[in-house]
Amino acid sequence: MKKYLIFCTLAILTFLFGCEEEQAFRLHTAPEYYQGRATLPSGQQIEMTEADRTSVLDACYPDDALALAPDGERRWIGTVTLSQPLTTNASTQAFPTATFFEVENQTYVECRVDTISYMKQIDAVPDSLVPHREQAVTYPSVAKLRNAQPHERLHYLKEMNKPVGNEPYPKRTALEQTLVHVTMPFNGSFEMTFESSEGIETVTVPIDAASRQPYLSLGFGTETAEGMNRFGIYTSVNQDVYQDVIRPKDASFDQLLGARQTDTLPSTLLPGQRYPLFSFSFMRDNVPHKEVVSLTYKQPVLLRGEALKREMRAEFSNRQHAVFHELALIGTEARDAAFLTHLTADETRFVFKAIERSKATTETGEPASIPYLTVFEGICAQTFDVSYKGDDVFLTNTKTGSHFKLLRDDANKWHDRFDN
Questions:
Q1: Positive or negative CA dihedral for 123, 127, 128, 134?
Q2: 224: part of which helix (H) or strand (E)?
């Protein structure tokens, strides 16, 4: 796990090049501060042990990332999402999200953090996923499209007539001639493009653990509620419920004039190619409008080599956090635990800079009233004991016992910020 230190930017100088004087920062990977949960193809979720979390971090270390995704059908085993409750809120993405899959009896992982995506061939999946390998679901390597059969169109009509939402229920109408079915690929995203004489608007539909299903049905329709008419593309993963809808920002209309499916539909959606599905016409404010709806399958852009490492360093350097704590951390604490004092972004920047500027010493002081400080950068962390001697501020690496003294100006600012 020490190999991850090259992505903790404050450890890069020491780790890669060495320094004559001992440095205060000795950040280390910290799976103990993570929580992990795997989503299986069935929708079941299982908790990841600390050993599993370590396996995920090891699997996603970006050496030997693939230039191209493997060819062939992919068997999705499960997707692990890691969170760091001490430093992030529920809506914050954590690193990494790891999707484990097989192609022709070889095991792979796709790792993602924000917009960074890369793949690797690996030896094994985390232990907690092993018992679930037989429940893996197979996906094609490319997206496929087919037109709906007459009985499927009739079913779409019936489903759209059923009440959804709260009373008074909106009145929904299906344009059944537009219905198509997509055999979903394993990863990437779809772009739904609404094109008119006024411009182009694109709505992205990601393919991830939450939305990854074998099939997706798409049909044009309208609904009327509280005197407002809106159009949209209604979707279903099982052809039984069409509750989810994709719309442009302005989907209002006064009168629908009609919809017409494209004469020839492709059977395979080549990545990056935009395919028109249907067009529709309507009146809005006494002005006629026509829009063409197209579908594009987008494969993820895979990074590798120095470009990948550069992006990860930049990503990790933006993920800094610091917390004072009265008790030693064991890794299972909630962010709002009473003995934690989280620093603001400005305070965190100051603390990182002050530690970076500190000098090695043999001195130490008396424990501060809040005796511990833990700093986080990316997936790395480090804890210091905090002590004072007069106005001097000392930090002791809790793992090595090495002592460091803040510069006089930093010590004064430290007292002004944290001892009032």
A1: positive
A2: strand 215-225
CB 397 within 8 A of CB 382: yes
Question: What are phi and psi for residue 361, nearest 5 degrees?
Answer: -150, 165
* CA nearest to 105, candidates 86, 77, 127: 77
Q: Could you report the per-residue pLDDT of 177-208, keeping only the tens digit for each?
A: 999 999 988 888 999 999 998 899 999 988 87
Q: Is 40 helix (H, G, I), strand (E, B) or coil?
A: coil
pLDDT in tens, 272-319: 999 999 999 999 999 999 999 999 999 888 999 999 988 888 877 778
Compute φ and ψ for 119, nearest 5 degrees: -125, 150
pLDDT surpassing 90 at residue 354: yes
User: CB-based burial of residue 154 (10 Å sphere; 0-12 exposed, 13-18 middle, 19+ buried)?
Assistant: middle
CA geometry: angle at 188 spanning 182 and 189, to 5°?
60
> Which two structure tokens, joined as six digits, stand for 212?
């990854």
The DSSP code for 208 is S
Give dist(CA 208, CA 186) in Å, integer. 8
Torsion of CA 204, 84, 212, 67, to 10 degrees: 80
Alpha-carbon separation of residue 179 from 54, 196, 274, 278, 363 (angstroms): 45, 21, 18, 10, 75
pLDDT confidence of residue 120:
95
> Do residues 317 and 27 touch, judged by C-beta distance below 8 A?
no
Which tokens in the block code for residue 391?
């106005």
Residue where the block lists tokens 């395979």:
268
The Cα-based distances of 196 to 248, 251, 289, 293 in angstroms read 12, 12, 8, 9
117 and 303 Cβ atoms separated by less than 8 Å: yes
Is the Cβ–Cβ distance between 279 and 292 less than 8 Å? Answer: yes
Spatial distance between the Cα atoms of 8 and 380, rounded to a whole number of angstroms? 6
Report the distance separating Cα 90 and Cα 83, nearest Å.
Answer: 8
CA gap 171, 207 in Å, rounded: 30
